[in-house]
Amino acid sequence: MLRKAFLAVALAAATTVVAPLTGHASAGGAPPTAAAVNVYYDTSSAPTFASAIRQGAANWNARVSNVKLVENRSAATLRYREGNDPRGSYASTNGHGSGTIFIDYTQARQYYVTRITAHETGHALGLPDHYSGPCSELMSGGGPGTSCTVASPNATEAARVNSLWANGFAGTYEWKVIYEQVPVHS
Ligand SMILES: [Zn+2]
Questions:
Q1: What is the distance in A from the centroid of ligand 1 to the CA of 129?
Q2: Measuring CA to CA, which of 31, 59, 103, 166 is 20 to 30 A from 140?
Q3: 180 is known as an active-site residue
Q4: Residues with Cβ < 8 Å from 40, sequence gap 6 or more?
Q5: Domains in the chain and their CATH numbers?
């Protein structure tokens, strides 16, 4: 994964040689020396939503290359919880792979659960809310209403996350608590 990140940087610097660089990716060169950029997560405190959390993570993994979500309880920096909270679901996170994601039962009954889990995971990967966006946008969250079942990031969102993770875990990140204050629809 570090190799991919390095390649992504190299490609960004020299976009006209994409094909040759890709072709040489497996030929020679020093092997990666640092740990891969994996974000380990734990679903054990959100058993009701474990499969939705895994699907949401898989949806991210299918579209981004600079970070990978891997379920691993003992190594987890990202933990999912479930319960009832009048404030709804939230992500308490540094926006860079650490934190707690809380899935609220009431919202989980109202909205497509995998969209909730993938959306909250998007916060843990660094994306903010954008409730005014269309259903095709994951980070529009509950904005488009309860009928929206899109649970994958769009190309813009995936590109943004790849950019945010181009340097792996390097950098400093501000801790935030992001509540899903979903707009009321008539
Ligand atoms: Zn949100």
A1: 5
A2: 166
A3: no
A4: 70, 71, 72, 75, 76, 77, 78
A5: 1-36 (no CATH), 38-179 (3.40.390.10)
Rounded Cα distance, 99 and 130, in Å: 20
> What is the distance in A from the centroid of ligand 1 to the CA of 118?
10
Whole-prediction pTM:
0.80
Q: In tens digits, what is the pLDDT along the chain, a chain of 186 residues?
A: 445 544 444 444 444 333 333 333 444 444 444 445 999 999 999 999 999 999 999 999 999 999 999 999 999 999 999 999 999 999 999 999 999 999 999 999 999 999 999 999 999 999 999 999 999 999 999 999 999 999 999 999 999 999 999 999 999 999 999 999 876 554
- Residue in 82, 120, 137, 180 annotated catalytic: 120
SS3 of 107, please?
helix
Ligand 1 centre distance from Cα of residue 121 (Å):
9
